[in-house]
Amino acid sequence: MKSPFRDNMSIKIRLMSGNDIAMGPGKADLLEAIEKTGSISAAAREMKMSYRRAWQLVDTMNACFKKPLVEKIKGGHQRGGATLTPTGSEVLRQYRDIQEKAEKSARKDMQKLSRQLVS
């Protein structure tokens, strides 16, 4: 999601669960990539991160919510993959809605503030 502010200004929302980041901008991007590619490894490649890192993020998200956000699909002739669960799709949608509302709400103040930045 492209921010409506200058390139060097954005609002980043993090949903915490204890000491863990349950959802944030990078995790939302990862969920979108998994949804698009049908694979954690393909999503990781698309985001230029290791499979191990992507799996750690998925594991944290799954542990932070009452129901998992991503489920692995067992392999076979067509190999395995991953998909968002209905909960994962809903959490992603809600997170993006919150992000959009926060940016709309702060737009004028952020534009005023950005005029005071050097670059």
Summarize the structure.
With 119 residues, this protein is α+β, with helices and mostly antiparallel strands. The protein has helices spanning 25-37, 40-46, 51-64, 86-114, and strands spanning 15-17, 20-23, 70-73, 81-84.
| CATH-level-2 architecture | Orthogonal Bundle
Number of strands: 4
Q: Secondary-structure element order, as H and E? A: EEHHHEEH
The major sheet is characterized as: 2 strands, antiparallel
What structural class is derived from the secondary structure elements? alpha+beta
Query: Roughly what percent helix?
Result: 40-55%
CATH domain fold name: Arc Repressor Mutant, subunit A
Low-confidence stretches: none
On the 0 to 100 scale, the average pLDDT is 90
Alpha-carbon distance between the termini? 22 Å
Radius of gyration: 16 Å
Largest sheet: spatial strand order: 1-2
* Shape assignment: elongated
Return the domain count: 1
Count of helical segments? 4
Classify the beta-strand content into a percent band.
5-15%
Task: Please report the first level of CATH classification, the CATH class.
Answer: Mainly Alpha
Q: CATH homologous superfamily, by name?
A: Winged helix-like DNA-binding domain superfamily/Winged helix DNA-binding domain
